[in-house]
């Protein structure tokens, strides 16, 4: 009898359960539960994506801090050294531009995150506000650096112009010095330049270097002698003149004690100037007749 009652109750419970599961209300509740579960999964996925984006932005912000710190140090060093070239300043400008573009990119990412998450928690809002505030600080700092670079660029332009003017002045002075030195050299050469001509009687006569005042008079240096083809010399340097002849006579006027005519082992004579100042005192044109 008890078994029959138990079986009857079990059958009733199974029947009631089947009725509940097949009822419209149950199906509606189940659908709502499934929908909530799906929304929860999507929210978790969006939250994970949002956290990943925030991590990327945070990592990028650290890179920005490091880059800006280096840029600030370079700018400070530039101010101390005050010797940055135009190329270095242009590189600093490029660095500033790169950081500025990175800040704009991060601001755009943060704006997208705010748009995706309409129902933001207080913690999320605080985090976003902190990131935006730091980006604003970075932007302000970059503006200051940009202003400093603009000032340095202007200073460099002024210095470049000054250097160009100085270079032009130096070149003009150098040109004037060279011209002056050339004049000095020419004057020095003129003062210390002598001329000599060696030849036999016939050669000297044909060159109109010598002339006779009478049949029995010795030859003398002609007034037209300077037109002849003399060899130039520096009287300070030329102390010995080989004559390549066994006989030689000076026709030009020179003090006897200022020179000697020496005969070498081969019999040829050599003119040795002992006192160049005295030797060339009366004339700078030396005429030697040989043979």
TrEMBL record:
Stretches of the chain forming a coiled coil according to its record: 82-183
Superkingdom of this protein's organism: Bacteria
Protein's recorded name: Lipoprotein
Species the sequence originates in: Odoribacter splanchnicus
Keywords carried by this UniProt record: Coiled coil
Record lineage: Bacteria, Pseudomonadati, Bacteroidota, Bacteroidia, Bacteroidales
PROSITE patterns, A to Z: PROKAR_LIPOPROTEIN
